[in-house]
Design brief:
Blueprint lengths: L5 E5 L3 H13 L3 E5 L2 H9 L5 E5 L7 H11 L4 E6 L4 H9 L4 E4 L4 H13 L24 H13 L6 E4 L6 H10 L8 E5 L8 H6 L16 H4 L4 E5 L6 H13 L1 E2 L8 E2 L3 E6 L3 H6 L5 H7 L2 E4 L10 H14 L6 E2 L1 H9 L5 H15 L4 E2 L1 H14 L10 H15 L9 H20 L4 H8 L3 H11 L9
Parallel strand pairs: 1-2, 1-3, 3-4, 4-5, 6-11, 6-12, 7-8, 8-11, 13-14
Antiparallel strand pairs: 9-10
Bound molecules: adenosine-5'-triphosphate.
Pfam family, one: Sigma54_activat
InterPro entries: AAA+_ATPase, AAA_lid_NorR, CheY-like_superfamily, Homeodomain-like_sf, HTH_Fis, P-loop_NTPase, Sig_transdc_resp-reg_receiver, Sigma_54_int
Subcellular location: Cytoplasm
């Protein structure tokens, strides 16, 4: 079936032309390959080919400039752009000029074949295309790791839509930065970008902060207050730490998303909501849903396109570039310019970075400010990391995971045993010992309400009752 499909390949690198021609040929496609943009253009004009695969930098013309021209004369001909300049901006330009897909080099041939198959069969969608490039304010997203490339591609595609996005990732992984990129390069870039952090606002004020309030709506509302939804009209509303949103505000937000309009606190007239929503959280929302802390229906409204930002320790290949970037930023803010030697980079790569990019940024600023020599060594990095460890700003750390917490306690328990570990039945003992404090915690958190405690624990109510009896846990009467 592939025999009838012809693929036009343009790349000035002969090796790439050969590899692509062989791989595509083996898959049954007919391939015509050229080193010049001019020849590719001629083929397209003649009506040849069912798909174009083009490089960006070619001697006679930039492949990206060719995409809108191709789309103008043959709107149905799909174009896959590949580039060794694998930056975020290339990904955005490819998406905005109407490329079907963007492949950062080097890529896997399997991946290429999958993209080709998709490009030839995917149903025609109105390809969003903007004539003018979104330059935004030059917001650099640093990192060439495969994980970041994948994120650039997703973000680039999203800049041509208004879809709601949910960004998850540990603290300091760049969630706010990605939300800015979605705005600055997106369709609403001429509108405002408004951020609101759910964790930073007193619970009782969140609804009025979001939707605004009328004069006299509550004690202290002396004048009408404009909410973030109204401030962000025509632009993007960034809902940071959405997992910390109180239940009543969740219900109200859900209604707004369903109905597309909101009313101010104390107001009557509905106002049309005109915002693109980007939400972010470092929490595991699925777990919060299971615990009854986050509305499942709201989650699905927000999680239209999920983006997961990997922690820095999962993309250590990005550390040298990021470190360089943060040193440059430190210099631009008036601190002395510094270099890192190889041992410094090696030491940076060994660290676990619980505070992610923000922790690296803070370290680079400290070294720029305090380290006397121009070239920073591995020893200096080591000393600074050791120094910072116990003082680490809790804000810049990710909260400890359950596994880490348990491990910490087990380790100190074992260390405290004078005669070494109790050798018998350790597995059963530890599991049994966890039960009692866990149930006590759940009962305390729900003030003795066994129905809520059972829901939080994910246990059947009767099972919980049985365990309370077995473990002889105190029951708060009258509340359950
Ligand atoms: N890929 C990146 N390229 C350049 N800078 C980055 C990158 N990722 C993060 N940073 C920088 O690291 C710092 C932390 O990023 P950001 O505030 O976006 O993280 P966050 O995930 O929103 O954190 P939190 O959850 O704690 O609010 C910022 O100064 C940001 O500019």
């Amino acid at each position: 079936m592939n025999e009838s499909r012809t693929i036009l390949v343009a790349d000035d690198d002969r090796a790439i032309r050969t590899v692509l021609s062989q791989a595509l040929g083996r898959a049954g496609y007919t391939v015509r390959a050229t080193s010049s943009a001019a020849t590719l253009w001629r083929w397209v004009e003649e009506g040849a080919g069912d798909l174009v695969i083009t490089d960006v930098i070619m001697p006679d013309e930039n492949g990206l400039d060719l995409v809108p021209r191709i789309k103008r004369i043959r709107p149905d001909l799909r174009v896959v752009v590949m580039s060794a300049q694998s930056t975020f901006v290339t990904a955005v330009k490819a998406a905005q000029r109407g490329a079907f897909e963007y492949l950062p080099k080097p890529f896997d041939l399997k991946e290429l074949l999958a993209v080709v198959a998709r490009a030839l069969t995917a149903p025609a969608a109105a390809m969003p295309q903007t004539d003018e490039d979104a330059e935004g304010e030059r917001l650099p997203l640093i990192g060439r790791s495969p994980a970041m490339q994948e994120i650039y591609r997703t973000v680039a595609r999203l800049t041509t839509t208004d879809l709601t996005v949910m960004i998850t990732g540990e603290s300091g992984t760049g969630k706010e930065l990605i939300s800015r990129a979605l705005h600055d390069y997106g369709r609403r870039r001429t509108g405002p970008f408004v951020a609101i952090n759910m964790a930073a606002i007193p619970r009782e004020l969140i609804e009025s902060e979001l939707f605004g309030h009328e004069r006299g709506a509550f004690t202290g509302a002396l004048a009408r207050g404009v909410g973030r939804f109204e401030q962000a009209a025509g632009g993007t509303l960034f809902l940071d730490e959405i997992g910390d949103m109180p239940p009543e505000a969740q219900t109200r937000l859900l209604r707004v998303l369903q109905e597309g309009e909101f009313t101010t606190v104390g107001g009557r007239n509905p106002v049309k909501a005109n915002v693109r929503i980007v939400a972010a959280t470092h929490r595991d929302l699925r777990q919060a849903i299971r615990q009854g802390m986050f509305r499942e229906d709201l989650f699905y409204r927000l999680n239209v396109v999920p983006i997961r930002l990997p922690p820095l320790r999962e993309r250590i290949e990005d550390i040298p570039l990021l470190a360089r970037h943060f040193l440059d930023r430190a210099k631009a803010s008036g601190l002395p310019g510094k270099q890192l030697d190889q041992s410094a980079i090696d030491r940076l790569r060994q660290h676990a970075w619980p505070g992610n990019a923000r922790e690296l940024e803070n370290l680079m600023r400290r070294l720029a400010a305090l380290y006397p020599q121009e070239v920073i060594s591995g020893d200096a990095v080591h000393a600074e990391l050791m120094e910072a460890e116990p003082l680490n700003d809790p804000e810049s750390r990710s909260p400890e995971t359950l596994e880490q917490a348990v491990e910490r306690h087990l380790t100190s328990f074992v260390a405290a045993q004078k005669d070494g570990l109790p050798v018998r039945d350790l597995y059963e003992r530890v599991l049994a010992e966890v039960e009692r404090p866990l149930l006590r915690l759940a009962l305390a958190a729900t003030r003795g309400n066994q129905i809520k405690a059972a829901a939080m624990l994910g246990l059947n109510r009767n099972t919980l009752r049985k365990k309370i009896r077995e473990l002889d846990l105190p029951v708060v009467r009258g509340l359950s």
